[in-house]
Specification:
Blueprint: H1 4-12, H2 18-30, H3 44-53, E1 60-66, E2 72-78, E3 84-91, E4 97-100, E5 104-105, E6 123-124, H4 127-142, E7 150-153, H5 163-174, E8 186-190, H6 194-201, E9 208-212, H7 218-224, H8 233-247, E10 251-257, H9 265-275, E11 280-286, H10 300-312, E12 317-319, H11 336-340, H12 351-356
Parallel strand pairs: 4-7, 7-8, 8-9, 9-10, 10-11, 11-12
Antiparallel strand pairs: 1-2, 2-3, 3-4, 5-6
Bound molecules: S-adenosyl-L-homocysteine and iron/sulfur cluster.
S-adenosyl-L-homocysteine (SAH) binds at residues 111, 113-114, 154, 158, 189-191, 212, 254, 256, 285, 287-288, 290, 331-333.
């Protein structure tokens, strides 16, 4: 659905008063209406006009699969130009319903361990395509008398490579007259695009920031994350320091545990030293097999050892609960299955483009 202001403008060009736009947004976001025909407060003629000219959702559901334990639901969507993206709804034991959404069709950054990074890059999503992933699940939950509690931008794509559309989508998701999901319940995850972090400092939107660190030294980080060639670890730490100094908000570090790559005790000490004293939290992510990349996850015992060492530095650190592995809906697995089936074209990541840009 369009942002309220955009809908008002669109209707005003047709001489339809603004209160109609507000009625539509309310019906769609607060009452879970999925078609104009069911918004009975609108005149019949307007219902028909809107049905053809202003689609409620900018994406079409192709398929939905649930994990065996029912905790996770993954949806494959088709965009107007045929590109496909995925989003995931997770029901946690504590009653939270978290939706993980995509910001791009594919990703240009080519991290060595990530399924999305091996796909051909499609394009940036529009703000509407981003916020509609949330609206889709909000409407589904509405019909079960439930509500989304959290949003994470941890699906396909790098949010800060599509900064403006992501920020506009977050405002739509946050709009009290619309979906009304609190900014503090929204988390944006970046692989370390410093400009994005610096820009976020000045936004009047208090969303949480997660940084995919994955390595505490530049050499190792460069090996697994090509983006480190463009933004060094040192630059990244400076941007994070600015963010923390100016916003006083806690950031989360994500650290995917890769066997024999970034999980040694020595590396754990380096990580502890690098971030000790910061207002932060570390999430150690057990690696999810992708089926297309030849990397293994660390064994649970090594993850616990790593955690205990980082803890010695006074850094809050937890091991992330992973849901939905059986339907390839866990971190880093999105688009993998679809790519295999040829629904999303697979190609080498565009590393060169990043290095030169
Ligand atoms: N592009 C952004 C957000 C999407 S990825 C980013 O990189 O931060 C969300 C998280 O999943 C990132 O921390 C990413 O590194 C991690 N991830 C990628 N592939 C993974 C895998 N196979 N197993 C576990 N986590 C993975
Ligand atoms: Fe892109 Fe994030 Fe995957 Fe890296 S981990 S390839 S930045 S989606």
């Amino acid at each position: 659905m369009l942002a309220t202001q955009d809908l008002i403008q669109k209707l005003e060009t047709k001489k339809i008063p603004r209160y109609r736009a507000i009625q539509v947004i309310h019906a769609v976001c607060k009452e879970g209406k999925t078609s104009y025909a069911t918004i009975t407060t609108l005149p019949l003629e307007l219902q028909r006009e809107l049905e053809t000219e202003v689609p409620i959702l900018s994406l079409k559901q192709v398929r939905q699969v649930a994990s065996k334990d029912g905790s996770t639901i993954k949806t494959l969507f088709e965009l107007h130009d045929g590109l496909k993206i995925e989003a995931v709804l997770m029901h946690f034991k504590d009653g939270r319903h978290t939706v993980c959404i995509s910001s791009q069709a594919g990703c240009q950054l080519g991290c060595k361990f990530c399924a999305t990074g091996t796909m051909r890059f499609g394009r940036n999503l529009t703000y509407e395509e981003i916020s509609d992933q949330v609206l889709f699940y909000a409407q589904q939950l509405h019909h079960q008398d439930q509500r989304i509690s959290n949003i994470v931008l941890m699906g396909m794509g790098e949010p800060f490579m599509n900064y403006d559309n992501v920020l506009k989508a977050l405002r739509v998701i946050n709009d009290p007259d619309g979906m009304n999901i609190g900014a503090r319940n929204i988390t944006v995850s970046t692989s370390g695009i410093c400009e994005g972090i610096e820009k976020l400092i000045n936004e009047d939107l208090q969303v949480n920031l997660a940084v995919s660190l994955h390595a505490p030294n530049q050499e190792l980080r460069k090996k697994i994350m090509p983006i480190a060639n463009k933004y060094s670890l040192e630059q990244l730490m400076t941007a994070i320091k600015n963010y923390q100094d100016k916003t006083h908000r806690r950031i989360s570090y994500e650290y995917v545990m890769l066997k024999g790559i970034n999980d040694s005790e020595e590396v754990a000490h380096q990580l502890g030293k690098l971030i000790q004293g910061q207002l932060c939290h570390v999430n150690l992510i057990p690696y999810n097999a992708t089926g297309i990349i030849n990397i293994e996850g660390s064994i649970p015992e090594q993850i616990r050892k790593f955690r205990d060492i980082v803890k010695e530095y006074g850094v809050p650190v937890t091991i992330r609960v992973t849901l939905g592995q059986d339907i390839q809906a866990a971190c880093g697995q999105l688009a993998n299955k679809a790519a295999k089936e040829g629904e999303i074209a697979k190609q080498k990541p565009l590393e060169v483009q990043i290095k030169n840009s």
